[in-house]
Amino acid sequence: MKNDQFGTLTRRRFLTLTTIGGATLAAGPAVLWSTEAQAKSAAQTLSIGREQDNTTFDPILTIQNADIWVLDNMNANLVRVTYNGKGLEPDLAESWKVSDSGQHYTFKLRDGIKFSDGTPIKSSDVKFSLERLRDQKDSVMANMYQIISDITTPSDQEVQVTLSKPSAPFLSTMAMFAASILPESTVKARGDKFGTNPVGAGAFKLKAWHRQDKVILERNEHYWANHKVKLDRVEWVYIPNDNTRILNLESKQVEAAIFIPFNRIDALKRRSGIAMDLDPSSREDFMIINHAKKPLNDVRVRRALFMGVNREAIVKVALFGHGKVSNSFIPAGALYYNPDNKAYPYDPDKAKALLKEAGAENITLDLLIPAGNSVDDQVAVLLQSFYQKIGIKINITKQEEGQQWNSLQAGKYDLSLDYWTNDIIDPDEKATFCLYGYDDNRSYFTNYKNPEVKKLIVEGRRTLDKAKRKQIYDKLQRIAMRDVVYVNLYYSPFRNASLSDVQKFYQNPTGRFMLEETSIKT
Question: N or C: which end of the chain has fewer CB within 10 A?
Fold first, then answer.
């Protein structure tokens, strides 16, 4: 996903101390510090500086990248995305069969697989996890899984999933973080506290979560491919300020740092002892528009907002050329992306004319941005300048990212800078989250609704012919641009840096950090 936070998506914020198998969850950095320092010096430990803290480790209650990227290495699915992010491969299911009708899937689980607490993984856990994802009221991505009509478990190692209709993206959705397989008995026993006290089946398991400081993972000895994992410990360290994050990397307080500001990329490339990686991504940055507020409910005003932005200048000035303007809600290079989809041009005169026609001259709008993000700071100032030229006053408001997301979810905003990354290779996920409008997240909280778009999204799922699917997604891309669901800004690579002795610190196009492959040269 997504920049990805929550509201009802993550209602559970536990600030009291909680015990996780002997480890302590705390709001501050002091707890267990001496123990952590000793463990780090004795083990293959990778500390990663990041701009956001976690919110929950319950995979069905979040759409936030900070959560997803940790969950990806704590949990396992029936199938998973390949290392290069372009295909699917077996995970907990060693094989699967699809009926000729395309409606019946039979998954065979691997022998002897276990959760991180050592309990066996059974087909009943798969059934429970998928039904919970589909049926629980506050499940964020539930809409994508309504097509599952029945799940049966002929044996502890066999799962049969029946769909109400054939679904082209179904197998891809099985690789999504939300479809992680969880232990039924543990989830039921821990209830609302599972999000802070999780059990999964991935390469790592939760050791401790110090709120606003760090998340500590340790190697999961029960992981089915544990023999391939080289790291003993992973620390996700919360460092919201971009410059501080880089200083911590340069001083070797962390081994890696993500979300490197664009203006520091070229210098870090030249820095001895640091590897600066620009990995191909599915990221799109955009400006969200609240269609529920006047005059933003008028498409003429939204088109003026689009045409009033010099997006090429943003790429040049704020990104230092490390990106390109976006022309579609589907990320560049992704499945069914249309490079010829036409975007509105930069035309301030036309924008002013549209505002006058809509009776929306000399309006004032609030622009919400995350605090501490130097790139968004610069983009916001550029937007403020562009919009001043067409008669729109922009007030820039900064909020901590969790607070910003809560504001979006509650509809308490006019405009907001945000971004998306795909979690699966199929465009259905983003189409559902950003355009569907009638359930779940109200078209990424823009409140955009279009009955034709809703129908096309459903049709896109049910159409198996690739050429016909492409036509559907071509049309969706045209309509989304015509209606200005949001202002498309730019595509950019993942930009991460690590010390040169860190091997294979890689983020694939779906955003997954492939930490099962990472090691530290000693």
Answer: C
